[in-house]
Design goal:
Length: 50
């Protein structure tokens, strides 16, 4: 699943979730939400929160 992209993650844009497996390829290490450049929610966050 490393590198897989799953649609969704934000009600305000067409975000995708990117999955990163851990070093040994077992389980999920992280899921990051990647927002559109013009996402109103993401753009409303303070700079230190992005």
């Amino acid at each position: 699943m490393d590198g897989a992209t799953v649609p969704g993650g934000c009600d305000h844009c067409n975000a995708v979730q990117k999955i990163t497996a851990n070093m040994h390829g077992v389980g999920i290490h992280g899921v990051g939400v990647h927002h559109d450049d013009d996402c109103s929610f993401y753009n409303s966050l303070p700079a230190g929160s992005k």
